[in-house]
Design goal:
The chain has 4 helices and 8 strands. The chain is of the alpha+beta class and about 160 residues long. The relative contact order is 0.16. It is elongated. Strand 5 (about 110-120) and strand 6 form a beta hairpin.
Amino acid sequence: STQKEPEERERAARNRDLVAARMTPAQIAEAQRLAREWRPKTAAATPPPATPQTSGSIVIQPLLEGRKTITPDWAAINAVPLGDKGNPVRVHLAGQEAYLSRLVCSNGAPPTFYRVGSFGVGVYGTIVDGYDVDCAGSKRMVFMDMYHPNYVEPRPVPGFTIRAP
């Protein structure tokens, strides 16, 4: 316990009372209910598995062409495991390393990875990059497409789990 804790507690109580003075009785009752029901998230909580997109259009942004809307062949894409060349991980520009850094190996450790290079035009009509991803000597090539503005892939490639962004 530090000397500042009682002061901080008193300041928090004063601020709470100032806010409560401006609230209606219904708002106070709702705030009290929410406070009673609040539970901290556990570190081990795993988000529900995300499902692949199966229909609809998406926006891509090739470097030289600007934004455009396409409707991919979702059946063909989803017939291939995520991370293969036929179903590259969709990320935004500069999102490749962010995605790979969220992966977790089966032993709980983060993988090491490095960019191998570009592998031509992929299923979304943009360039696909390949990354060598290594979990304690078990290597796998993960293909990624970085031309999906503001998109963050929620699913892990097979053989991994993934942390939330």
